Amino acid sequence: MTTFYAADDGTRLALRLHGEGELLLCLPGGPADPRYLGDLGGLSGGRRLVLPDLRGTGRSPVPEDPARYRCDRLVDDVEALRRHLGRDRVDLLAHSAGANIAVQYAARHPSRVGRLVLVAPGTRAVGIDVDGAERRALARRRADEPWFPAAYAALDAITRGTGTDWEAIAPFLYGRGRWDDSARSHHTDGAPDNPRAVAAFGADGAFTPAATRAALAGLPSPVLLLAGALDLNSPPRPTADCAALFPDARLVVQEGAGHYPWLDDAGRFRETVEGFLSGRP
To answer: Rounded mean pLDDT of the chain?
Structure first.
């Protein structure tokens, strides 16, 4: 079901509701239409997923001011959505680039976060980088897969600054043995279709890593960070470094998974996230 809520500047932003149970606010990466999240491996069976369309994506309008695309400004939209939902605190899940919004939201509004789940998180907001050598080393673990030679050649060129064939490296985003017609379709659905939103997301002023890290050091909320063992976009090492920034964090590395662990092993992903959200050890 699609509905709308009012942002602080009066813009009507879209959101989708899926499933039943306690609310779980889910921030997509990209910025892209959140349809690629699906039901997050069946989480909608026990949770009511709240999936906002970020500005200029899905059914949300394109802003007149491009600065509204900036990550730090999108935090304001999350807070407006929390108020719209009528909750003093919300459990929050974020994937990929959406984690940059989530951690800034937690830094700015710590009392409003119940439990925080960061799936294959982007780490720009906290100043954690991934270099090309690390990505190439992780990629070489896939050398036995049939698509590897072409994909690795493209990755090698991109990470050395001599190539731009991002489509060629798409197989690396999915788990071992997962690059099939279903994955290709998912990749198409999840591709950002608003280049201005992508470019402005991390524009000057969008991130203040030192201040964000300092605020997260006092965050009272429990945090789950879930990394795919084979994820070149958000490898386990920087995800572990991010986990170390929180006083109450749990790191889980899902074996065989890429950037979309709920697709690679839905049962394991669901068990991990549901257990965390319910407070099970």
So the answer is: 96
Q: Are strands 12-18 and 47-52 parallel, antiparallel or unpaired?
A: antiparallel
Q: Cα dist. 227→70, 124, 144 in Å? A: 25, 16, 22
φ/ψ (deg, to 5) at 163: -145, 165
User: 130 with 65: CB under 8 angstroms?
Assistant: no
Q: What share of the chain is helix, strand, coil (3-state, %, to 5)?
A: 45, 15, 35
pLDDT confidence of residue 281: 64
User: Among 116, 115, 111, 154, which residue's Cα sits nearest to residue 135?
Assistant: 154
Give the global pTM. 0.96
Report CA torsion sign: 183, 71, 158, 225: negative
For residue range 224-257, what is the model confidence (pLDDT) as tens digits? 999 999 999 999 999 999 999 999 999 999 999 9
User: Which residues, listed in sequence order, are joined to residue 90 by a DSSP beta bridge?
Assistant: 113
Q: Is 209 exposed, middle or buried (0-12, 13-18, 19+ CB in 10 A)?
A: middle
Q: Name the strand (E) or helix (H) holding 226.
A: strand 223-228
